[in-house]
Amino acid sequence: MPRLPKRKVGIIACSGEELPEGTVTRLAALRVLEHLRPEETVTICLPLFLAGGEGERAFTRFYPTIAIDGCEKRCAARGTEIYSGKPAAGVVVSDLVAEGGLDRPEGSRRLNQAGQRAVEVTEVRVAQLVDELLEKRRPRRFGTAAKKEPGR
Amino acid sequence: MTDPKRIAIVACSGIGKTSGTVSREAAYEVTEVLRPDRTRIVALSLLVLGDEAARAAVTDSPAITIDGCKLACATKVCQERAGRVGQAFDVMDTYRRNRRLKSQGIAELNEDGKKLARDLAEEICEAVDRLTAAKEGKEDNA
Questions:
Q1: Strand, coil or helix: what is A72?
Q2: Which residues of A fall within a CB distance of 8 Å from B44?
């Protein structure tokens, strides 16, 4: 049987250098890429959609993508949608912090403890989304019949 | 964000290479420690989106860009958004002048990486001082 390329999920962090939440997106993305789901994820820099070529802009055609944003401006989600394609899912750190009742992260250069906690919460959420996206797109097992969709 | 007296510093936002982290560390060293009153950091993602305040920051006065690799996203995006690039820095150029510094780490730089970032930050400060003096000279002549 031919070996098919493994399905992967794309991760795009806003990386916003001005805000501590931007640093949270970078560190959470790195944790997912390097430790939590290294075999299942790939990344691309958001600015490459503008600075790169057609190959970079085709990113979301190859990978269902999760945008990790620091604030409500949602640069990663909006930029990905404008220049490549609609992300399959997204998280906003400031929302996760509010939902979890966490203290606001401080220190863009060196995150404080609240920032480290926000990284943990964000990386866990993103890893869950990776699993959900791969499960959704997993091809049916050999020998099993596809379920008939309602109305067809 | 719009403070035309301050020089905008736009760093690479890459998370795939150590040099991206060095570029940000240098940017923070300049904006938080060495020249906090003359500079401000502008998020590259905001420029990608064409955010008005971010655009104004790089059009009101010449910006300084710091790139982590030859793709030069910070410089290209700044130019794409009609920004004026006063000086473009590349981490690799600083590394070539300091080959003994073997920077490692992305989430956290090793000591060599931090030293490389400090050396780069000092180079950036020279550009900040030159651009600030040129701007003040223009204002005096006006």
A1: coil
A2: 15, 17, 46-47
- Provide, as residue numbers in chain B, all residues whose Cβ is less than 8 Å from the Cβ of A14: 43, 45
Q: Which amino acid is at B60?
A: D
pLDDT 10s digit of each residue in chain A, 152 long? 676 667 899 999 999 999 999 999 999 999 999 999 999 999 999 999 988 888 889 999 899 999 999 999 999 999 999 999 999 999 999 999 999 999 999 999 999 999 999 999 999 999 999 999 998 665 555 555 545 545 44
**HEC states along A20-50?**
HHHHHHHHHHHHHHHHHCCCCEEECCCCHHH
d(CA A109, CA B32): 9
Return the residue matching tokens 């030859």: B70
Smallest Cα distance from B107 to chain A, Å: 6
Cβ <8 Å between B48 and A30: no
CA distances from B47 to B8, B78, B134 (A): 12, 7, 25
Q: Domains along chain B? A: 7-132 (3.40.50)
User: Does A79 contact B45 at a Cβ distance shorter than 8 Å?
Assistant: yes
Provide the chain A residues 122-141 that lie in CB contact (below 8 A) with chain B: none
Selecting from B15, B48, B77 the residue whose C-beta is nearest the C-beta of A13 gives B15
